[in-house]
Amino acid sequence: MAKKAQIVFCAIALIIAAWSPFPVRAETRACFLFTPAGGTYEIGQKFTVEIAVNTHGSAINAAEGTVLFPTDRIKVLSISTAGSILKFWVQDPAFSNTDGTITWSGGLPTPGYAGDSGKLFTVIFQAVNAGSAKVANGNGSILANDGKGTNIYFMGSEPTFTIMPATKTIAPSAQKSTSASSKPITHVSSSAAATSALVITRANTDDEASPTPIISLGTSSDAFVRFEIAVDGAPVNAAANMHGGNYVLPPLLPGSHHVTVRAYDADEKYVEGELVVTVKPLAVPVIATYNVHVDPPRRPFVITGTVPHSTLYSMQKVIITLRNAEDMGIMTAPVDADGYWSAVYDGTLKKGDYMLTAYLADERGARSVETEARKVFINDWSYDTLANIGQISAVGITAVMGLSVIIAAAMFFYSWLLALRKKLFASVLRNETEPMKNNSGFEKGDQ
Predict the structure, then answer these.
(1) 3-state DSSP of the chain
(2) Which of 142, 144, 147, 192 falls 20 to 30 Å from 241 in CA-CA distance?
(3) pLDDT tens digits, 315-373
(4) What is the tens place of the pLDDT at every residue in 5-61?
């Protein structure tokens, strides 16, 4: 029994001594960057995009990836590796305007590269068709210069470009309209539209961050009985928002938008005008602190930040999003009079890596662009329970190990004492038994 106790307690001591907190999970902080982060270009226009790497302080010595782009909106004309931090290429950057991909793989010798804007290569695109063109990250890897080639890649920001029809000279047209008729907003005497001109200007130029720009429709004639308006190719209800000669556009996101107006006369002849309206974004909020590793509910996700004081507007708020391919959480943080904001996420998210982004919005619906995506790892409850056990402090582990050793030693000493006591008891019994045998034999001999 004592031997079994020794084995059990020694096993416990070895297990505790060998067991350590769960290994720290490597924070995959390096990401690819695109410059510019967006823009507006006309069909046929060429523009350059630089692909770089931000290592967030870690040294890297190799990287590879795939860039995805919509072939129905843009195409690649050429790629240049001039000025790249990569010194040798396993695969030179190659593109396919059929598949919409750019693939590449390269490296550099020790000590590698550590920085926030290491140029990899540049791409010259050309706008093909009107619409939205998102340039995205596909599969990729960024290897740390740690002797093990640890992959510290995490998807970064992905730019979106707006492609608009090429600017054309506005001229009167006598073309018959083929679009559906709408109720006239005014009723005036008819005259030939072909002899009239249409001038479109922006009315509220003093507030370029307004998400609802106002355009002014000026004509050289009173012959027009109705207007048709489209924003980025999508028709809008002109009559609903027309005020005199001004039209209030529906809420728009930051960026440039293409507005087309057709003014019809009573004979359904029209003139057409175009205008590019730019909605300036609000200032991007500054993220000051946040949890990179979240262990709910013991360590919830907490984020704080500021808004540049010069851009403060009434009733501003910061919208914070945690998202991945399977789950998403949203928080809203009011901005105080000094420009500070904070939020705590009290919802439930599945375990995994999440992208953290934030943007500023105000009561008008104006907003900023999103911040650069950052990585957050969230544990689930079961993992947290084990992690809480595994994350015992070094002092606590030392105390437990020491106590286990003391218990094991005490049990061993106790077992040794039991064995010694048994041995001494047996020896005493033998010493007492032998004289009795001798005495018994002596008495028998005397008889």
Answers:
(1) CHHHHHHHHHHHHHHHHHCCCCCCCCCCCEEEEEECCEEEEECCCEEEEEEEEECCCCCEEEEEEEEECCCCCEEEEEEECCCCCCCEEEEEEEEECCCCEEEEEEECCCCCECCCCEEEEEEEEEECCCEEEECEEEEEEEEECCCCCCECECCCCCCEEEEECCCCCCCEEEEECCCCCCCCCCCCCCCCHHHCCEEEEECCCCCCCCCCCEEEEEECCCCEEEEEEEECCEEECCHHHEECCEEECCCCCCEEEEEEEEEEECCCEEEEEEEEEEECCECCCEEEEECCEEECCCECEEEEEECCHHHCCCCCEEEEEEECCCCEEEEEEECCCCCEEEEEECCCCCCEEEEEEEEEECCCCCEECCCCCEEEEECCHHHHHHHHHHCCCHHHHHHHHHHHHHHHHHHHHHHHHHHHHHHHHHHHHHHHHHHHHHHHHHHHHHC
(2) 192
(3) 789 999 998 877 888 899 999 888 889 999 877 888 888 989 998 988 888 888 888 88
(4) 444 444 443 343 334 333 333 444 788 888 887 788 888 889 999 999 988 888 999
